[in-house]
């Protein structure tokens, strides 16, 4: 949970600086929401751990009070063993209580930080509402940044996800060549090399890696695919369809988005736009 410095508005800062700051606040709010969910889970887990420890301690107290043996030695030995168990259970209970207290404190801090971020978002939004015409280039840029901050990161249901090797095996004409190490290199015309993919909840999956992606078009089967940038034999390949009749048809949809390639989760923006080029279609 890193600190941030609120943007002073006593002197009107450059508009680009305020827009970038608003986008940063959106990203911080997303990260904090994920942290809050994790902190709530930790509080619940530690509360359950404390409950179990207290039940164990109660059982040890009852066992110690009921220790009886066939002789004095057995009784004394059983009593000391029960006392040892009781002490150990008390330590476990105290540790669980401390962990719960710490988790609750952290959760309270996160709530306070979230409230600060929300208040700052309201302040900056009011400043920009008064300063920016929604139909101006700056207003459109602001709308794009706000949309990007709330854009999901999971691939839509129509996207098919393959391992690189399986993707080539399904249609061998997709293969351009192999590297000296035997890694497949896909054929295709590139439409952007730095489409972004960042899960909004900080999760990662083997087939959904974070970072920059490339979108390409394969004329051999009219296929559009996305693949993470960089080498590797087991990179995922997303078949992002629909099939395009030509390279020019793909360019007509994707090239207008190049200016938005550096937005958060721009890969998902490209996929959604390919599905609905005019912005209106049934899901």
What's this, in brief?
The protein has 6 helices and 8 strands. The chain has 283 residues and is of the alpha+beta class.
Note down, in words, how this protein is organized.
- The chain is of the alpha+beta class and 283 residues long.
- The protein is 53% helix and 12% strand.
- The chain is built from 6 helices and 8 strands.
- α1 runs antiparallel to α2 and α1 packs parallel to α3.
- It starts with 14 loop residues before the first helix and ends in an 8-residue tail after the last helix.
Which helices and strands appear, and what pairs or packs with what?
Elements: H1 15-65, H2 72-131, H3 137-149, E1 160-163, H4 164-170, E2 175-178, E3 184-186, E4 189-190, E5 195-197, E6 211-218, E7 223-228, E8 236-239, H5 247-254, H6 266-275
Antiparallel strand pairs: 1-8, 2-3, 4-6, 5-6, 6-7, 7-8
Which class of the largest domain in CATH terms?
A: Mainly Alpha
What shape does the CA trace take?
flat
Q: What fold name goes in the CATH topology slot of the largest domain?
A: Helix Hairpins
Count of β-strands:
8
Most strands sheet = 6 strands, antiparallel
Helix/strand order: HHHEHEEEEEEEHH
How many structural units, i.e. domains? 2
Fill in the keyword field for this structure.
single chain, 283 residues, alpha+beta, Helix Hairpins, 2 domains, 8 strands
